[in-house]
Design goal:
alpha+beta
Length: 283
């Protein structure tokens, strides 16, 4: 059985190399889902408020994206919807997301090994230009079907700083504690198809011998729901040009500074009515 799998993969890679010489264009639609594990003090938050809060969080994190691609370039952005999620409700729940990705545009050029990301950070537009960081993918033996596509599994490991990504603070005399951070090893799992021999994928993921249809890091899953190959109207891939130009390291420093400012504003401006709840979600 293992020999058969290896032969299947080898033949698929061979035919992929032949197909990759063709001019592939397409549009893929992805949906994101995030696991949420929030524990609340029942003496401060009733069941109705808890359900409302979870519904708001679900709406914030379940988003739809489009990936337009050709052989070497791709453009990834959030799909436009009429129903935009709101940040606050009449019950006093406030959801604040740093770097939520709304309005962001990610352009990748694999031939030149670079990307350009247009990001809106609280009303200020930044244009991040930097080199693509390709992970060391490990091609696994597992195969599964996703619709009409045969998909192969690939994984890579990375070190990340983990903390409580969601912290809740209820107005009281006590100051909220900063979450402890620690470095952990995270496994990213992707499923790619050799039937679409381009090295693109959703978000920052790319570099496999076929289009990535599903990727998960354990907390967030991005899943392809629709693919159009060679659409009759073509694809529109324009590199973003708007925004203050920075590299990745400079933008991360701006993000960190902004998060500290938001912390200070939140702590100094808290209401004292005992009913307002604010959930602050950082990257």
């Amino acid at each position: 059985m293992k020999i058969l799998l290896y032969i299947t993969l080898a033949l698929s890679l061979f035919f992929t190399s032949l197909l990759s010489a063709q001019d592939f264009k397409g549009i893929a639609t992805y949906k994101s889902q995030r696991k949420m594990d929030i524990k609340l003090d029942s003496t401060r938050v009733n069941d109705e408020m808890h359900l409302q809060m979870m519904a708001m969080l679900k709406k914030q994190f379940e988003k739809e994206y489009t990936l337009e691609f050709n052989n070497n370039e791709s453009l990834y952005k959030e799909a436009e919807t009429l129903d935009k999620p709101t940040g606050a409700s009449s019950s006093g729940i406030q959801i604040e997301i740093m770097g939520s990705g709304e309005g962001d545009i990610l352009y990748k050029n694999l031939a030149e090994n670079r990307y350009a990301s247009q990001s809106d950070l609280f009303g200020k537009i930044f244009l991040i230009n930097d080199t693509l960081e390709q992970p060391e993918w490990k091609l696994e033996k597992e195969i599964k079907n996703m619709g009409e596509y045969t998909c192969f599994k690939a994984t890579f490991k990375r070190k990340v700083m983990m903390s409580s990504s969601m912290t809740m603070s209820v107005n009281s005399e006590e100051e909220p504690k900063e979450p402890e951070q620690k470095e952990v090893e995270q496994t990213v799992t992707a499923w790619y198809t050799l039937q679409i021999p381009v090295k693109h994928g959703p978000g920052n993921y790319s570099g496999l011998p076929g289009l990535i249809l599903e990727v998960s890091d354990g907390s967030e899953t991005i899943l392809c729901s629709r693919i159009i190959i060679n659409p009759k109207d073509g694809v529109s891939i324009e590199e973003p040009k708007k925004g203050k130009k920075v590299n990745k390291k400079e933008f991360e420093a701006v993000m960190e500074k902004k998060m500290k400012e938001m912390d200070e504003q939140f702590h100094s401006g808290r209401r004292d009515d005992g009913h307002s709840i604010e959930i602050r979600i950082g990257g």
